[in-house]
Structures are given as C-alpha cells and as structure tokens.
Write a structure and sequence with these properties.
- It is a single chain.
- This protein is an alpha/beta fold.
- It has two domains: 54 residues, no CATH class; 182 residues, Rossmann fold (3-Layer(aba) Sandwich).
- It is built from eight helices and eight strands.
- The strands form two sheets. The chain has a six-stranded mixed sheet with strand order 4-3-2-5-6-7, sandwiched between helices.
- β2, α2 and β3 form a beta-alpha-beta unit.
- The protein starts with a helix and ends with a helix.
- Keywords: Membrane, Transmembrane, Transmembrane helix.
- Pfam families: VWA.
- It comes from hydrothermal vent metagenome.
- This is BatA (Bacteroides aerotolerance operon).
Length: 246
C-alpha cells in the first residue's frame, strides 16, 4: 500500500504522440467570360486558329487539376451571369462542365460585375479561411445591372480576394480597381503562354498546404496507484475490524 501511495504522489505520466494532419484549403470560384469576343482567334501563337475560349478551357482545366485539395466552382457570364458548377472537392465536375461550355451560353455581352455578385453568393457562407475569385475577361463591362460599389462592399464584407486576368484589349483599369480593392492582384495575358504563367503565379500566391505533424498529449496516471492504495486501505480496515470481532 505504501508503495502504491508513493507512486501516486510521484504523479506518473504517459506521453502519447498523436498524428495531426493540418490542411489549409481554399474555396475558389473561376469567373469566366463567355461573351462573343471570346470566339476570336490568334491568342495562341502556335495555333492561330485556336479561339480565345478554347485556350481558356485548356489552361483553366490544367489549373483545376492542380487544385485537387481545394473546392472549385465556376461562374460564366455574357448578357447575364450564371453558376456553371457549384463548389466541390470533386474536380471532375467543373472539368467536365468547362469542356461543355460554349460561347454565348448566357449571351454575347459582358456582365462582368454581375458575375462577381454571383460568385460571391457561392462564397459568402464558406467556412474556408481563404476565399477567392479568379475573374477572366477580354472586354469592358457592357451588361451588368448591379453597381460596382455594391459588389465591392460585398467582396470586402466576406473577405473575398479577386484576382483579375485581362486578355486581349479588355478594360484593365476596371480589373485593376477590383483586384486592388480586394487585396489581390491584376494580370494581363497577351497569349496562351502568358495565361499559363498567370494561373501558375496565382497558384503560387494562393497555395493550399497539407502539414503532417504530431500533437504531444500527456496523460496523468496517478489515479491508478491512488485507487490501489485506497483499495488496500479499505481491505486492511476490513481485516482489522474482523480481527477485533473475533
């Protein structure tokens, strides 16, 4: 009994190493211009007959494949904007959708600002600490109904970054303003090679991480010998009482 009591007073411990898989993933919405001007050729210097949209499909597909740990959604815009693919960890869905989208799907104008409002509706309830929109367009906004000021306030309210990509002769000033107001960055791509580099840089800036580590857990064991001590004490008391009775 004395030994177990002394052992409990020494407060023995057991140290456990528990795996901790910490992941930092992002919620990303690709907002893509499908207006009539995206049918123009000449954006791929190695294949003049490839349209701007065909190049975007190819390069954006590669980007989606590389972001397998993140949730990806897609918005397209023309006369209006629409959700083409909701947020999902299954990148097969946006990949399949992207390959089936055609120019003029939602009209041939450019509702660029409205597309940001649509993308925000996908991200406003996100629990991810990193939410971003990658907006690609080759023209001025010609069809939006929602004022830019309102959209910017929504983006700032929900802490959503908007990386903008201008291709061709798009409105760089508007795109730069949007990215600046949301603490992101604006890019210009003049050809397919540039566009690949832009998506690559965005991936580098907004990297998802997977850190494998261990958590050190200390379990106190004093109650085991203490319990034995109490048991022995009760046992001795019981025997002592029986002896007195006899």
């Amino acid at each position: 009994m004395l030994i177990t009591l002394l052992t409990s007073l020494a407060s023995p411990i057991l140290i456990k190493q528990i795996p901790d898989n910490t992941q930092h993933t992002l919620d990303i919405v690709l907002s893509l211009d499908t207006s009539g001007s995206m049918s123009l050729n000449g954006f791929n210097e190695l294949d003049y007959n490839q349209s701007r949209w065909s190049v975007v499909q190819e390069v954006a597909s590669d980007f989606i494949k590389e972001r397998s740990k993140d949730r990806i959604a897609m918005v397209v815009f023309g006369d209006t904007s629409a959700i083409a693919s909701p947020l999902s960890y299954d990148n097969a869905s946006p990949l399949s959708t992207l390959q089936n989208i055609r120019i003029g799907l939602v009209g041939r104008s450019t509702a660029l600002i409205d597309s940001l409002a649509t993308a925000t509706s996908l991200l406003e309830h996100s629990i991810s600490s990193s939410r971003l929109i990658i907006l690609l367009s080759d023209g001025d906004d010609t069809a939006s109904k929602i004022p830019l000021e309102i959209v910017l306030k929504l983006l700032q309210k929900f802490h959503i970054k908007v990386y903008t990509i201008a291709i061709g002769e798009s409105n760089n000033n508007l795109l730069q303003l949007i990215s600046t107001q949301t603490n992101a960055k604006s890019f210009t791509a003049n050809n397919k090679k540039d566009l690949k580099e832009v998506y690559k840089e965005i991936s580098s800036i907004e990297a998802s991480t997977h850190k494998l580590s261990t958590i050190r857990v200390i379990e106190y064991l004093y109650f085991y010998p203490l319990g034995l001590s109490l048991f022995f004490a009760l046992l001795l008391a019981y025997k002592s009482r029986n002896s007195e009775t006899i």
